[in-house]
Amino acid sequence: MKSSRTCRGWFFPKLAWVAGLLSLSGCCYSGGPFIREPLPEYQLISQEIPQENKGQVAIFFIQDGDILDCDGFRELNAQVRACGYRQTYFGFLHHAGHFAEEIKALHEKNPTIKIVLAGHGLGAAGAKHVLEQVSPIPVDLVFLCDSPEWLIEKNRCENASKLLAVPEFHVQKVGHVGDCEDCPKYARVKKHQTSTEEGSLLLTELGLLASQGQGGKVKAAPSQAEKEEWDFLELAPAPKEKVNLLEAKPVFEKKAK
Q: Of 61, 71, 176, 209, whose CA is between 20 and 30 Å from 182?
């Protein structure tokens, strides 16, 4: 039988390791741990928008269980900040309540601030919770990546002005772990050839929000069809067919009254 000292010597290091792993997934933060140089295509989209306008947009990123950031959602947060949108928040599903309280505080301080929710995978459930908690405060954009269709439908709330859903999501990694070979979800994309169209779509939408009523110059995403009161995005592009996400119609967009 092992002595109690031997058991403690085995138990506490394991406990510390588990606690460290949980803390890695349990942290939410306002802003980000780093600011990168933005990718050229992202910088091109954002460079004409005044910095003061970008400060009027608050973006809340809600990750699911992708702790290793295999799909680059945390990287998207870093790229958005690098493009000048410094009022960003990043967390996981269990931070949805905290984000809702933060949105209420921001809206009380500045009723004209633009609110954006970005959810990855099951993070769409967190976005749904935030929408319900902050109602009737309007959320200007809900941006969902790799989320199940049934969760996308649940985010069609009265206080959500616009909802965009991206079926396949990968953001190019810059300057740090970029292969994530052990992550099965990353097998869909070749090394160092990940798409940046999703980030371009989000930054285009952020630019439109930032420039509303402020005189900022930004080119709107092209649209080939008239928008009805509810527009639906086709979530299943043809295999091996390059889809221009900048031309994708929103899942829904309310008409301005």
A: 61
> Is residue 63 within 8 Å of residue 74, measured between CB atoms?
yes
Parallel, antiparallel or unpaired: strands 252-253 and 162-166? antiparallel
Q: Which tens digits make up the pLDDT trace of 185-235?
A: 322 333 333 356 778 889 999 999 999 845 444 444 333 333 333 333 333
* 136 preceded by a cis bond (ω within 30 of 0): yes
Torsions phi, psi of 18, nearest 5?
-65, -40
The CATH number of 39-222+230-235, from 1.20.1420, 1.10.443, 3.40.50, 1.10.1760, is 3.40.50
> How much is the pTM?
0.66
> What's the CA gap between 230 and 140, in Å, rounded?
15
Amino acid found at 128: K
